[in-house]
Design goal:
The protein is of the alpha+beta class. It contains six helices and 20 strands. The strands form five sheets. Strands 11, 12, 13, 14, 15, 19 and 20 form a seven-stranded mixed β-sheet that branches. It has a five-stranded mixed β-sheet with strand order 2-3-9-4-5, covered by helices on one side.
Length: 280
């Protein structure tokens, strides 16, 4: 198994979910052992590697910061890259936030398919989990333990008639990300919108890029893509955040009511626990 990158550059434009800014983004092939690197073309091509060490905050999205330069909402694109089996890629963009597109990873998968995938000359490196590590905070729990593959068992629980308690067990194998996870959209609640707007968040949010839930239903006229689209989107977020480890993972994640901050805390704890993993 060798490392991969994309065959040719591809570009797309859109708006940032939280900032509402217009963004032009281009994916570009990268050599072996590069990982994913964000390049702010509006700031003299300043580079921010997609790495746990640059996570700055995780309120409603994962935000990276290096030397004061910020990059927001990277999880859906990183999820698509990891889900497509791509190891190395330059991500050029001319603003502060990755475009939200339709709120899922589906358009990113389409863009990657358009770019094509090619093998490089270096062997793939995988972070293999050797012993269980867990993190818990205020009822939000997440752990990672040894497994023969990369798998995620996720539970969410919202007091809402369309959600309630949902559980999904995902195993990353050939094409499973595209079939089971990629098209699950982000979601939010009408009662949160005013609070988010006051905090200058969700300025680019619309029914085209999120499921918006009312107390007893949803504002969107298009139907859900899966009955359990909500828990599948949580798994999409987890895959994107775990991609910040910088390589594919061999291990099983168990998440209950987790969120971006919990994902980042578990990844940091895993990396600090030296005998819990090895690179193979």
């Amino acid at each position: 198994m060798n490392q991969t990158t994309i065959v040719k550059p591809v570009k797309i434009s859109g708006v940032g979910l939280h900032t509402g800014v217009d963004v032009n983004l281009r994916l570009r092939p990268a050599p072996e052992n590069t990982g994913y690197i964000f390049v702010r073309t509006d700031l003299d091509n300043f580079e921010i590697p997609a790495s746990v060490e640059y996570v700055s905050h995780c309120s409603y999205a994962t935000t990276l910061m290096r030397r004061g330069v910020v990059l927001s909402t990277c999880e859906h694109l990183l999820s698509a890259l990891r889900g497509s089996g791509i190891d190395n890629c330059f991500i050029e963009l001319d603003n502060i936030e990755i475009p939200i597109l339709d709120g899922s990873s589906e358009d990113w998968i389409g863009l990657i398919e358009k770019a094509g995938i090619k093998d490089l000359n270096a062997p793939k490196r995988t972070l293999k989990v050797l012993k269980a590590v867990e993190f818990e905070e205020e009822g939000r729990k997440m752990s990672i333990e040894p497994s023969e593959k990369f798998e995620i068992e996720c539970v969410i629980d919202f007091k809402h008639p369309l959600i309630n308690r949902q559980t999904f067990h995902f195993v990353m194998d050939n094409g499973s990300f595209g079939k089971q996870i990629a098209s699950a959209r982000t979601f939010g609640f009408t009662h949160e919108i005013e609070m988010l707007r006051k905090a200058n968040l969700a300025l680019g949010g619309s029914l085209d890029n999120a499921i918006v839930l009312t107390p007893d239903g949803m504002l969107n006229e298009t139907p859900l893509r899966f009955d359990d689209e909500f828990v599948r989107h949580k798994i999409l977020d987890i895959i994107g955040d775990v991609a910040l480890l910088g390589m594919p993972v061999q291990g099983k994640i168990i998440a209950e009511k987790s969120g971006h901050a919990v994902h980042a805390a578990l990844m940091s704890k895993l990396l600090r626990t030296e005998n819990a993993w090895e690179i193979v």
